[in-house]
Design goal:
With 1938 residues, this protein is mostly helical. 59% of the residues lie in helices and 3% in strands. This is Phosphatidylinositol 4-kinase stt4.
Length: 1938
C-alpha cells in the first residue's frame, strides 16, 4: 500500500490513542492526561455539563453536526473511538464517553470539510460505526457507565427514526421512480442510509451489552426504523442519483460511492440495510443459545454440529414472549423475502445474493429459536423452508445459503431420529440430482455423514451401498438405486408449508454433459468418503475402500482419478491397517498406470499421497506407518533379490514419484516432533532409500537431480542420519553389510559412480580409483545429501559420516574430507551472494557452532574435518564469529574441554564421557584417553585464538562487546568458582590489539615490551556493569550535583538518602527475620537485597550504619558456599570503596565465625562423623559410586563456607596486619577460640584441608603479630598445637574420593604448616616461671605432619614413579620412624589419650611403642574410656593377666564395633563377667540393622556362652526384630548338624534348640503368625527339590515342567520374603521361571520372584530426621529377583566369603575408593541347604567361550564396539574397577578354583566372582595349580589397554594398590569375622589360617613398601603361567573353555 502523509498521520494517531488507553492504567487517580491531550487536538471540546447534541450546551441552538468537521478533527475522533475498547480506567472511559456522546446522534448528518480521504466510500458509515462501537465498548467494559452509554444509543435510534420518518414522509404517495425526486434532494436520504448501516453493524458487534429484554426492545425499535416507506424512499433516492444527468461535484461523488458499494458485492440499498438488521437479530438469538460457552455467529452451524449436548437447557435464560416475538419477526422477514422473489429475479446478481444472505441469516436465527423451544419455533416450518430451498436450483447455487441449509438439516437430524431417518433418504438424492457446486457438494457429503451418525450402522452401510451403486453406471446411462418411497420431497412426505417439487422415487442421472456427470460422480465419491470418515470405524473404512476400488474402471478415467484422490481421507480417519491397505492400493495403481503411461491416474496417486502427507501429523501413530511405507516402496523399487529382469527406467520413475510425498511428509508439520516406536527400522529404511536413489541414477548433477532439486533439497534437510550409529563402533562396517549398496553392481556402473565422484572431487582422484562399488555408492549418497543440504543452508551434515568405520580407517576418509570441503564451499558461495536471508550471519554462526563441537570430537577425523570447515568459513565470513551463538559456543567449548581435562585430576577413576553447556547450546563426547583430551584442548585453543583474532580484526567492538557480555554472566557453583578457560580466554582476547587499529599496531616495541587494550576493555566493562547493576544513578561525585540525571533538583537529596538507608535497613531486617524463622527465601532475592545494601553502605560516611550487621550476618545465617561467596565479594567491595568501614566489617565477620563455632555449623558440625565401616550397616549389594559422590558433595558443602572464610581472613590479615593493633587483637582472639574448638569438628578425610588451613592461618597470626605480649603468644601457640594435634587424635585416614588435586593441596598445606612451625619454633620454646615449654608438643605435631605427608604421598603416587604426581618438596626428607615418637609419647598422652592410642594404630608394627602406650592405659585407663580402639591395646586377642583392676572401667567404656564385641564372647577372654557385660552392652548400643550383618558370628558364640549372655541378647533382640529372629533360626538350622544329611548333630545343637524355643515362646501371636507364614512359604519352595529328585535322570524339559507345576501350587502370603532378601517382600512368582540346574545326585533349581523393596532417598545430613521426628523418606520399587535353591550343598562357606567381600566393600566405601564388588546374598537355611541370589544381567566367562567368542577382549569389541567407542571405554572403566577390587580381595581371602565358570561379566562390563567353595587354606583337590596371587590373564590385560604401560592398566595397578592399602588399616576387624568362625567346622580353616591371613597384609611394612608389595602382586599375577595351566586343566576335566 502506498503511504501518504494523511495515511501516516492516521496510523500514528491510532497507535498513539491505543498506547494512551493502555498506559493510563498504571497512573494514579489524577492520570488520563494522554487521553485528554488527544481530545484537545480537536478544536471542539465538550464538557460533562454540555447538553447532548450541541456545542455550547445551555440554550444553544447550534448543533454539533452543523459545524463542518475538519480532516484533523475526524482523524482524531476516529482514533479515540478505536482506542475506546482498550481503556483501562473508568475515569478515562467517562471522559471519552462525554467527549464522543454528542457526536453519535448527529453522525448521520454531520457536515464534513473538504477532503480527499473519502474517494471510495462515504465517511458517514465509518463515522457512525466507530462512534457507536466506542460508546458500546465503554458500556460493555465499564459497567458503571453502561446506563449512560445505552441512553446515548437510545437517543441515536430516536434521532435516526425521526430522520427516516421525514425522508419516508417526503416520498409518501409518490412513485419510487418519480422524476420529481431530484438527485440533490436524495443525498440526505442516502447519507442517512449509510450512517444507519454503520450504526447497525456496530450494534450487531456489541449486542451483548444489553440484557435480553433491552435487546428485544432495541430490535423492535430498529424494526420500526426500517419501515417500508423508508425502504421505498431509499430505493427512489438511489435511482434518482443513478439516473440523473447532472454533472455537479456532489452528484459525481455519490455516483462514485454507489459504484464502489456495488463493486464490493454489497450494492447500496434497502436490502443491505435489511442484511445489517438481520445481523443484529441473529447475534441476539445466538446469545440466547450460547450458555456458559459463547458461540460465534460466524461459526455457529459448525459449532452446533459438533456440540455435545446440542442444547444445555440448564444454561438457557429467556422468556417465552421474547422468543415468540423473535420468531414472528423472523417469519415475517422470510415471508417478505418470498413475496419479493419475483422482483429479485430481475434485480442484479449482487442484490439477489444479498437477499439470499438475509434468508440464510433468517434460517440460522430460526434454527436457534427452534433449538431453544420447538414449541414456539416450529421445526416443521423450518424444514419446509429448507425443502423449498433445496428444490430451487437458483437458491442452491448460492454457496452460503446452500451450506446453511445443509448444515441446518444436519443439526435438525440430532433433534429427532425420525428427522434423521427422513434426511438420510433425501440427502443422497439431493447430492446426486441437486447439481451443486463442488464446495457445496462437499458440505452435503459431510452433512450426510453427520446425519448418518444418528442412525444405526446398518443404515450407514445401506446408504453407502446405495451411493456406491450410482458409481456402477456408465457415463450417460440411466442407472438408479431404489432409495426412497414413491411420493415426497427431499425430506419425504410434503409439508403443508411448502410447495416443493417431488424428486421421484429413485436416484437418476439424466445428464448429457460429461463434465457435469463427472462432477456428480465426484460428489458421490466425496460423500461416501465423508460418511466413512465421520463414522471413524475401521470396518466401515475397510468396506468403503473395498467398495470404491471395485468401482474403478466402471465409469471413466476422471472418476477413477477422483476415487484415488478422495480416498486419501480414509487413510487418515482409519487405523494403521486401513492406511497400509490404502497405500498398498496406491502402489499397485501407480505401478499399472506407469506401465500404461496413464498420466491422469499417476497424477491422482501422487496427489493422494501428498494429501496423506499433508494431513498426517508428526505426533500421529500413522506418521511412522506412512513413512515406513514410502521408504519401503522406494527401497523395493528396481534391482531386488532374484533373477527377474527389472525395468530400470520404470523403477527410476517410480522412485521419482515418491520425492514429493516424502518431502511434504517431512516438512509440512513443524509444530510436532515424531516419536517412533521402531526408530532403528526407520533409520535403516531411510538409509536404504537414499542408497537406492543413487543406484537408480539420481547422482550428483544428474538430470533427475536437476528436475527434482527443490523436493530433494527439502528431503535432504529432513533426512535421518545415513550412518548406522549402532554399527559405527562395531567390527563389521555398515557399508559392507548393506545389501542395497551392492545393487546393480557392474563394471560400467562402478565406472559411472567413480566418474560422478571425480567430476565433483578431482583432487581425490587417487583415492577414488581404489574404491569398491558399495563404497562409491555410499560416497555418492554423502555427496548428494551434503551438497544439497549445503545449498539449503546446512553444511554440517557431513560430520556424522566420519563416524562410519570404513571412513575412519580407509581412504574413504580422504574422499569424505573432500565432500566436506565441497559442502562448505557450496554453502559459502550462496552465503556470500547475499540473496537469501537464511544464509545471513546468524545462520552462518549456527553452522560454526556445529563445527566447533566437531573440533572437540573424540574421533580425530571428525576433528580434522570440523577444524578445516571452520577455517574456511571464518576466512570468508569472519563476522560470523561476531554473533553471540558462535562466540559463546566457542568459549563454552573451551571451558568444557578444560573441565574434561581437569576432571581427570579431580575424579581420576570415574570417567565422564559427555559434557554439556546449556548456555552455549553445545555438548561434546570425549575419550577416556586423558592425553588425547589434552592434545585436543591444546589444538582447539590454538585455533580459537586464530579464529577470534580474525573476527576482532574485522569487527573489534562487536566481538569485544560480546566477550564482555559473556563475562557478565557466570555460575557460582563451579568446582573452582568463576574460573574457566573460556572466561580466561575471553579476557585474553579482549586485550588484543586488532590489526585494523593502525596507530597502536604502528607502535615500536621496546625490548619485547608492548601494550595491549586490556585497560580499555576493563574501563568499558566497568561502565557496562555500572549501568547494568546500578539503577539509582547514585555515585559519589553526583552527591554534590544540583540536579540529577533526570533534571530534578538534588536539594532534598540528603533526606532522600536517609530514607534510602532506612528502606534498605528495613529490607535487610525483614530478610534476616525470615531466615531466622526458617521461612523459604530464594537466593536471588537474598542476592538482590544484599547487593542493594552493599551499594548503600559503600557510600555511607559513618561506620555506625545499621546495615553492616545484617550485611555480614545474613550470609552467616544461611551459611552455604553460595552465600559466603556472595558475602565475601560484597564485603571486599565495601571495604575497598569505603576503607573506614574495614574494622567494623572485620569485627562482624569475626562475630559470625565465632557464632558458627558456637552453633556448630559447617566445619564445626561434630554430628557429621566419618564412621568406621564396621560401625555402620553393611550391605550385600553392588558398589554404588553415586552414594559415595553424594556424601563427598555433602562434606564439601559443609566445609566449603569455612574454607572460603579462611582464605578471606588469611588474605586480609596479610594485607592489614600492620595497620592497627586492634586488627591483631581481633585475629588473635578469633584464632584462639577456633583452635580450642578444633577437637570437636567434622571427622572426615575431606576436612583435612580446611583443618590445617585454619591452623596455618593461626600460625601466621602468631608469627606476624607485633603487639602481642609473651603470655598471649604462649596461649595462642598452646591453642594452635592443640588444634593441630586434634586431627591426629582421630584414626588415620587416607582420603575420600578420587580428587588428586585435593590431595595435592592437602600435602602442600601440611608442608606449609610444618615449615611455619619451624619458623615459630622460638615462641614458648623455653619454660618460664609461670608457663611451661611447648617444645615437646611442637615436635610431636611436626613429626606427625611429616608422617601424614609421607602417607598421603603414597596415596597420591601409588606406583611410586607416576609422572602425574608432582608433589611439593617435603620440608624434611626420609621416612618417619616409630622410634621418633617414643620420647614424645608422654606429651601425646598428656595432650589427649586418643592421640596416644592412634599412634599405636599408625605404627601397629612397632612392639615397643605399643608396649609404652599400653602401660599408660594400664596406669590411667579412665582417661581413655572415650576411645573404643584403646581396648585393642588393653585387652589384645585374649585376656591378659595384668589386666584386673582396669576391667571395672569396661562398664563405662565407649562401645566398640559389634564385630569386635562378638569376639569378647570367645574362650580366650575366659567368660569374664566384666568383659562379657561390656560386649553385650556394646552390641545393644548398635542398631539391629548393624548387628544383623554379623548373625553367623553371633550364632557361633553360643558355643562358649556359659553365662547365657549371648542367649539373652538373641532372645531380647528377636522380640523387636522378626527379621533378625528368622535369620538366627535359619543359621541355627544350618549349624545344627555337622553333615549335609542331618545325621551327625553338632555339640551346640541343644543350645540352639533351647534358644529357638525360648524365642518362639516370647513372641506375640502376630509375630508367631508371621514366623509361620514365612517358614511355611519357604518350606514349600525348598520342598520342590525333594519332589524333583525322582526326575534327576530325566531330560531337562520334564524337570522344568515339574518345577513349574510345583510353583503354581504355592500361594504368596502377605509379608513373606526370601531368606536371601530380608529387605524385600515377595509379591509374586514367575510361575514359568523354574529351571533345573546341573547336578548328578542333587536337585538344585532356579526360580524368579517379584520383590518389592524400599530405597532410602539421598540423605541431606547423616542421621538427620525430619522436623516431625520421622525417618528419612523412602522410595518403593519392584524388581524381579532370581534365586537358586540348593539342597545337599553346604553354603556356609559362601556366606562367609560374601560376608568378607561385603566388609571389603564397606572399607572401600569408607575411603571413597571408586572400585566395584557385588557381594550377592547367600543364606544357609539348613544343613546342606541354602538360597543363592542370582547375579542379574550377567554371563559367565565359560558361556562366552561356548558362544564361540575367542577371548574376553573380542567379547568386549563385539558387544561394546571398538576401543575408541564410548561404550567400550565405559565398559573398560567398569572392568578395571571391578578387576582391581576382586584381585585384592581374591589375594587376601585366597580364592581358588577361579576357572572361567566362576567368573562372570555383567552388562556394564564389570567382572564378578562367584562360587567360593575354595578359600583361605583350601584348594581344589589339594593341588595348588593356582599359584598366582590372583587371576590376571592376557585377555584381561588386553581389555585393560593391551600392555602394562597403557593408561588403563596403570589405573588398574593404582586401584589395586589403594585397595590393598585401605584394607590393611582394618586387618583386626576383618580378622574378627574369620576368628569367630574357626570352630564352625568349615573346611577352609586350618590351624594356621589366621596367621596366614594376617601375613598377607604385610603389616610389618610401612605404607610405601606395602604399595610396592601390592604392585608386585600385580606383576606376578600378570606373568604367572599357573593360571593358564589351571584353565587348561579345567578344559580337560570339566570342558570349561578359556
Amino acid at each position: 500500500m502506498k503511504l501518504t502523509k494523511g495515511t501516516t498521520r492516521r496510523n500514528a494517531l491510532n497507535k498513539l490513542a491505543a498506547l494512551s488507553a493502555q498506559t493510563t492504567a498504571s497512573q494514579d487517580a489524577g492520570g488520563g492526561e494522554d487521553i485528554e491531550r488527544l481530545c484537545s487536538l480537536s478544536h471542539r471540546r465538550t464538557t460533562k455539563t454540555e447538553a447532548n447534541g450541541s456545542i455550547n450546551g445551555v440554550g444553544s441552538a447550534v448543533h454539533t453536526s452543523s459545524v463542518p468537521m475538519s480532516v484533523r478533527e475526524l482523524e482524531v475522533l476516529v482514533a479515540l473511538c478505536r482506542a475506546a475498547p482498550l481503556l483501562q480506567t473508568t475515569k478515562d472511559a467517562d471522559d471519552l464517553l462525554h467527549q464522543l456522546a454528542p457526536y453519535v446522534p448527529e453522525a448521520h448528518r454531520q457536515a464534513l470539510g473538504p477532503s480527499s480521504l473519502h474517494k471510495h466510500l462515504p465517511p458517514w458509515e465509518t463515522l457512525s460505526f466507530d462512534l457507536t462501537s466506542a460508546i458500546l465498548a465503554i458500556g460493555l467494559n465499564h459497567p458503571s457507565l453502561r446506563t449512560q452509554a445505552l441512553v446515548c444509543i437510545d437517543d441515536t435510534i430516536e434521532e435516526l427514526t425521526r430522520s427516516s420518518e421525514n425522508r419516508g414522509g417526503a416520498s409518501s404517495g409518490e412513485d419510487h421512480v418519480s422524476q420529481r425526486h431530484t438527485a440533490e434532494q436524495s443525498f440526505a436520504t442516502i447519507q442517512l442510509t449509510v450512517s444507519m448501516l454503520g450504526f447497525l453493524k456496530a450494534t450487531a458487534k456489541y449486542v451483548q451489552v444489553w440484557i435480553p429484554q433491552q435487546r428485544m426492545s432495541v430490535i423492535q425499535k430498529l424494526r420500526y426504523l426500517l419501515s417500508e416507506k423508508f425502504m421505498v424512499s431509499i430505493e427512489g433516492a438511489l435511482s434518482a442519483v443513478r439516473n440523473t444527468r447532472s454533472h455537479s461535484g456532489p452528484v459525481k461523488e455519490w455516483k462514485r460511492w454507489v459504484r464502489h458499494y456495488a463493486s464490493r458485492g454489497t450494492p447500496l440499498g434497502a436490502m443491505l440495510l435489511q442484511q445489517a438488521y438481520m445481523s443484529v437479530v441473529e447475534e441476539s438469538v445466538v446469545l440466547l443459545l450460547s450458555g456458559p460457552e459463547p458461540l460465534s455467529s460466524s461459526e455457529l452451524l459448525d459449532t452446533l454440529m459438533q456440540r455435545r449436548p446440542l442444547v444445555d437447557n440448564a444454561s438457557l435464560h429467556y422468556g417465552d414472549d421474547m422468543l415468540g416475538e423473535l420468531t414472528d419477526l423472523i417469519i415475517e422477514e422470510i415471508n417478505l423475502l418470498e413475496a419479493d422473489a419475483d422482483y429479485l429475479q430481475v434485480s442484479s446478481a449482487w442484490q439477489q445474493r444479498l437477499a439470499l444472505e438475509v434468508k440464510a441469516s433468517c434460517l440460522r436465527s430460526y434454527l436457534c429459536c427452534s433449538l431453544i423451544n420447538e414449541g414456539i419455533a416450529d421445526d416443521e416450518l423450518l424444514m419446509s423452508w429448507l425443502d423449498a430451498i433445496t428444490s430451487d436450483s437458483v437458491q442452491m447455487a448460492d454457496e452460503s445459503l446452500a451450506q446453511t441449509v445443509l448444515k441446518s438439516m444436519a443439526i435438525l437430524s440430532r433433534t429427532s431420529s425420525a428427522t434423521a431417518t427422513n434426511l438420510s433418504h433425501s440427502m443422497p438424492r439431493l447430492l446426486v440430482q441437486g447439481k451443486m457446486p463442488p464446495q457445496t457438494a462437499k458440505v452435503a457429503g459431510e452433512c450426510l455423514a453427520r446425519i448418518l451418525q444418528q442412525l444405526s450402522q446398518d443404515m450407514v452401510i445401506s446408504t453407502l451401498y446405495s451411493l456406491g451403486n450410482v458409481l456402477s453406471a456408465g457415463a450417460g446411462n440411466d442407472t438408479s438405486s431404489p432409495f426412497f418411497g414413491s411420493i415426497g420431497g427431499v425430506n419425504g412426505p410434503a409439508h403443508p408449508y411448502g410447495s416443493e417439487q417431488a424428486l421421484g422415487s429413485q436416484i437418476s442421472l439424466m445428464m448429457s454433459d460429461e463434465e457435469e456427470t463427472t462432477a456428480v460422480y465426484g460428489s458421490v465419491v466425496q460423500a461416501i468418503v465423508s460418511v466413512a470418515t465421520a463414522c471413524n470405524d475401521d470396518q466401515i473404512t475397510a468396506l468403503v475402500i473395498s467398495m470404491l476400488v471395485q468401482k474403478m474402471g466402471r465409469v471413466s478415467a476422471a472418476v477413477d482419478a477422483r476415487i484415488v484422490t478422495e480416498t486419501a481421507a480414509l487413510g487418515v480417519s482409519g487405523g494403521p491397517n486401513q492406511l497400509k491397505t490404502l497405500v498398498r492400493l496406491y502402489a499397485r495403481i501407480a505401478s499399472d498406470a506407469m506401465v500404461k503411461r496413464d498420466d491422469l491416474l499417476m497424477n491422482a496417486v501422487t496427489e493422494a499421497r501428498v494429501r496423506l502427507a499433508t494431513w498426517i501429523k508428526k505426533n500421529s501413530p500413522l506418521y511412522e506407518t506412512y513413512l515406513v511405507h514410502l521408504f519401503d516402496l522406494c527401497v523395493s523399487s528396481g534391482d531386488t533379490a532374484g533373477e527377474r529382469t527389472v525395468d530400470i527406467a520404470l523403477a527410476t520413475e517410480t522412485i521419482a514419484q515418491l520425492f514429493r510425498p516424502l518431502a511434504v511428509l517431512a516438512s509440512e508439520d513443524t509444530e510436532h516432533t515424531p516419536v517412533f516406536e521402531n526408530k532403528d527400522q526407520l533409520m535403516e529404511l531411510s538409509r536404504d532409500a537414499w542408497f537406492n536413489i543413487i543406484v537408480h541414477g539420481f547422482t550428483f548433477n544428474s538430470k533427475g537431480i536437476r528436475e527434482h532439486s527443490e523436493v530433494l533439497e527439502v528431503l535432504a534437510q529432513h533426512s535421518l542420519p545415513l550412518v548406522d550409529e549402532d554399527r559405527v563402533d562395531m567390527p563389521e562396517s555398515g557399508i559392507d553389510l548393506n545389501t542395497v549398496l551392492r545393487r546393480g553392481s557392474s563394471t560400467q556402473r562402478i565406472v559411472d559412480m567413480k566418474t560422478t565422484l571425480l567430476s565433483a572431487l578431482p583432487q581425490c582422484e587417487h583415492d577414488i580409483k581404489g574404491l569398491s562399488y558399495p563404497d562409491c555408492v555410499f560416497l555418492n549418497v554423502a555427496l548428494l545429501i551434503c551438497t544439497t543440504r549445503a545449498r539449503a543452508g546446512d553444511c554440517t551434515a557431513v560430520l556424522p559420516y566420519f563416524l562410519e568405520n570404513k571412513v575412519k580407517k580407509t581412504v574413504m576418509g580422504n574422499v569424505m574430507f573432500g565432500i566436506a570441503q565441497m559442502s562448505v564451499d557450496t554453502y559459502l558461495e550462496r552465503a556470500l551472494s547475499g540473496q537469501r536471508q537464511d544464509f545471513a550471519a546468524p545462520q552462518v554462526a549456527s553452522q560454526l557452532v556445529a563445527f566447533f563441537e566437531g573440533a572437540c570430537h573424540r574421533i580425530s577425523k571428525v576433528q580434522h574435518a570440523a577444524v578445516s570447515s571452520a577455517d574456511r568459513i571464518i576466512s570468508q565470513i569472519p563476522s560470523a564469529l561476531s554473533q553471540k551463538a558462535s562466540l559463546f559456543a566457542l568459549l563454552e567449548l573451551l571451558s568444557l574441554m578444560w573441565k574434561s581435562c581437569l576432571d581427570a585430576e579431580t575424579d581420576e577413576y570415574e570417567w565422564s564421557a559427555t559434557y554439556k553447556s546449556d548456555r552455549g547450546g553445545v555438548s561434546i563426547q570425549v575419550s577416556d584417553d586423558v592425553s588425547y583430551r589434552r592434545y585436543t584442548l591444546t589444538n582447539f585453543h590454538k585455533r580459537c585464538r586464530l579464529w577470534v583474532s580474525k573476527a576482532i580484526d574485522v569487527a573489534p567492538l562487536d566481538v569485544k562487546g560480546l566477550l564482555q557480555a559473556y563475562l557478565e554472566d557466570y555460575e557460582d557453583d563451579g568446582a573452582y568458582g568463576h574460573i574457566a578457560l573460556g572466561r580466561s580466554f575471553a579476557v585474553e582476547m579482549c586485550s588484543m590489539i586488532p590489526n585494523t587499529d593502525h596507530r597502536l599496531t604502528s607502535l615500536d616495541r621496546e625490548h619485547d615490551v608492548g601494550v595491549n587494550t586490556a585497560s580499555d576493555f576493563i574501563a568499558q566493562y566497568t561502565t557496562r556493569q555500572e549501568y547494568r547493576h546500578n539503577d539509582r544513578h547514585s555515585k559519589a561525585d553526583e552527591e554534590w550535583a544540583l540536579v540529577d540525571y533526570n533534571g530534578k533538583s538534588q536539594i532534598a537529596a540528603p533526606i532522600d538518602r536517609a530514607v534510602e538507608h532506612l528502606d534498605e535497613a528495613v529490607k535487610l531486617r525483614a530478610l534476616a527475620k525470615r531466615l531466622h524463622d526458617h521461612q523459604p527465601t530464594s537466593f536471588p532475592e537474598v542476592r538482590g537485597t544484599l547487593r542493594g545494601a552493599a551499594a548503600i553502605v559503600s557510600r555511607c560516611a559513618s561506620d555506625g550504619t545499621p546495615l553492616i550487621a545484617d550485611l555480614v550476618g545474613i550470609p552467616f545465617a544461611i551459611f552455604t558456599k553460595q552465600s559466603i561467596n556472595l558475602g565475601i565479594s560484597l564485603w571486599l567491595g565495601v571495604v575497598k570503596e569505603n576503607p573506614s568501614l574495614e574494622p567494623r566489617i572485620l569485627v562482624e565477620i569475626a562475630a559470625g565465625w565465632e557464632s558458627s563455632v558456637r552453633l556448630k555449623k559447617g566445619f564445626f558440625n561434630s554430628t557429621f562423623r566419618h564412621l568406621d565401616p564396621f560401625y555402620v550397616k553393611e550391605e550385600f549389594a553392588p558398589s554404588k559410586w553415586g552414594a559415595i559422590s553424594r556424601r563427598q558433595q555433602l562434606t564439601n558443602n559443609l566445609i566449603g563456607p569455612h574454607l572460603r572464610l579462611t582464605h578471606l581472613l588469611a588474605s586480609h590479615f596479610s594485607a592489614s596486619r600492620l595497620i592497627s593493633p586492634s586488627v591483631e587483637h581481633v585475629y588473635g582472639r578469633l584464632m584462639r577460640i577456633t583452635m580450642l574448638a578444633m577437637k570437636d569438628t567434622i571427622s572426615q578425610p575431606l576436612a583435612r584441608e580446611v583443618h590445617f588451613q585454619i591452623v596455618l592461618l593461626a600460625l601466621r597470626v602468631l608469627k606476624y603479630s607485633t603487639h602481642m605480649d609473651a603470655a598471649a603468644r604462649w596461649r595462642l601457640k598452646d591453642a594452635i598445637l592443640s588444634g593441630g594435634l586434634a586431627w591426629f587424635a582421630m584414626p588415620p585416614c587416607w582420603s575420600f574420593g578420587s580428587n588428586r588435586l585435593q590431595l595435592k593441596a592437602e600435602v602442600k598445606i601440611l608442608n606449609d604448616v610444618a615449615a611455619m612451625l619451624r619458623e615459630v619454633n622460638s615462641v614458648a620454646a623455653k619454660a618460664t616461671r609461670s608457663l611451661p615449654s611447648l617444645q615437646t608438643r611442637e615436635e610431636l605435631l611436626y613429626e606427625l605432619l611429616l608422617h601424614e605427608i609421607s602417607r598421603l604421598g603414597v596415596w597420591i603416587s601409588p606406583l611410586g614413579n607416576d609422572s602425574r604426581s608432582v608433589l611439593p618438596a617435603p620440608v624434611h626428607g626420609g621416612v618417619v620412624r616409630d622410634s621418633v615418637f617414643l620420647p614424645l609419647l608422654q606429651a601425646a598422652w598428656a595432650e589427649d589419650p586418643r592421640l596416644a592410642v592412634q599412634l599405636g594404630v599408625r605404627f601397629s608394627n612397632s612392639s615397643q611403642l605399643t608396649r609404652e602406650i599400653r602401660s599408660h592405659l594400664l596406669r590411667q585407663p579412665e582417661k581413655a574410656m572415650d576411645e573404643p580402639d584403646a581396648l585393642y591395646l588393653l585387652l589384645g586377642s585374649s585376656l591378659p593377666p595384668d589386666v584386673k583392676e582396669q576391667l571395672k572401667y569396661l562398664l563405662y567404656w565407649a562401645p566398640i564395633n559389634p564385630m569386635a564385641a562378638v569376639t569378647y564372647f570367645l574362650p580366650s577372654y575366659g567368660n569374664h563377667p566384666f568383659v562379657i557385660q561390656y560386649a553385650v552392652r556394646a552390641l545393644e548400643s548398635h542398631s539391629v540393622d548393624v548387628t544383623f550383618f554379623y548373625v553367623p558370628q553371633i550364632v557361633q558364640t553360643l558355643r562358649y556362652d556359659a553365662l547365657g549372655y549371648v542367649e539373652r541378647y538373641i532372645i531380647e533382640t528377636a522380640q523387636f526384630s522378626q527379621l533378625f529372629a528368622h535369620q538366627i533360626i535359619w543359621n541355627f538350622n544350618a549349624n545344627a548338624y555337622k553333615d549335609e544329611e542331618s545325621e551327625l548333630p553338632d555339640p551346640v545343637k541343644p543350645v540352639l534348640d533351647k534358644v529357638t524355643d525360648a524365642m518362639v515362646s516370647s513372641w506375640s501371636s502376630e509375630d508367631k503368625s508371621f514366623y509361620e507364614r514365612e517358614f511355611d512359604f519357604f518350606g514349600k519352595v525348598t520342598a520342590i527339590s525333594g519332589t524333583l529328585k525322582p526326575f534327576i535322570p530325566r531330560p531337562k524339559p520334564e524337570k522344568k515342567q515339574k518345577i513349574e507345576e510345583e510353583l503354581r501350587k504355592i500361594q504368596v502370603e502377605v509379608g513373606v520374603y526370601l531368606p536371601s532378601n530380608p529387605d524385600g517382600v515377595v509379591i509374586g512368582i514367575d510361575r514359568k521361571s523354574g529351571k533345573p540346574l546341573q547336578s548328578h545326585a542333587k536337585a538344585p533349581f532356579m526360580a524368579t520372584f517379584r520383590i518389592r523393596k524400599d530405597e532410602t532417598q539421598p540423605e541431606q545430613i547423616e542421621n538427620q530426621a525430619t522436623q516431625n521426628g520421622e525417618g528419612q523418606k523412602r522410595k518403593t520399587y519392584e524388581v524381579w529377583q532370581s534365586a537358586i535353591f540348593k539342597v545337599g550343598d553346604d553354603c556356609r562357606q559362601d556366606v562367609l566369603a560374601l560376608q568378607m567381600i561385603a566388609a571389603f566393600r564397606g572399607i572401600f566405601n569408607s575411603v571413597g575408593l571408586d572400585v566395584y564388588v557385588f557381594p550377592y546374598r547367600v543364606t544357609a537355611t539348613a544343613p546342606g541347604c541354602g538360597v543363592i541370589d542370582v547375579l542379574p544381567n550377567s554371563i559367565s566367562r565359560d558361556m562366552l567361550g561356548r558362544e564361540a567368542v575367542n577371548g574376553l577382549y573380542e567379547y568386549f569389541i563385539s558387544k561394546y564396539g571398538y576401543e575408541d567407542s564410548i561404550r567400550f571405554q565405559e565398559a573398560r572403566n567398569n572392568f578395571i574397577k571391578s578387576m582391581a577390587a576382586y584381585s585384592i580381595v581374591s589375594f587376601l581371602l585366597q580364592f581358588k578354583d577361579r576357572h572361567n565358570g566362576n567368573i562372570m561379566v555383567d552388562e556394564a562390563g564389570h567382572i564378578l566372582h562367584i562360587d567360593f567353595g575354595f578359600c583361605f587354606d583350601v584348594a581344589p583337590g589339594g593341588i595348588k595349580f593356582e599359584r598366582a596371587p590372583f587371576k590376571l590373564t592376557p585377555e584381561m590385560v588386553a581389555v585393560m589397554g593391551g600392555s602394562t604401560d597403557s593408561q588403563p592398566f596403570r589405573a588398574f595397578e593404582e586401584l589395586c594398590v589403594k585397595a590393598f592399602l585401605a584394607s590393611r588399616q582394618y586387618v583386626e576387624q576383618l580378622s574378627h569375622i574369620v576368628l569367630t568362625m574357626l570352630d564352625s567346622g568349615l573346611p577352609c580353616f586350618k590351624p594356621l589360617t589366621m596367621k596366614h591371613f594376617r601375613e598377607r597384609f604385610v603389616l610389618e611394612k610401612p605404607e610405601r613398601e606395602a604399595a610396592e608389595f601390592a604392585r608386585h602382586l600385580v606383576h606376578v599375577s600378570e606373568r604367572s603361567y599357573s593360571t593358564g595351566v589351571y584353565d587348561y586343566f579345567q578344559l580337560l576335566t570339566n570342558g570349561i573353555p578359556y
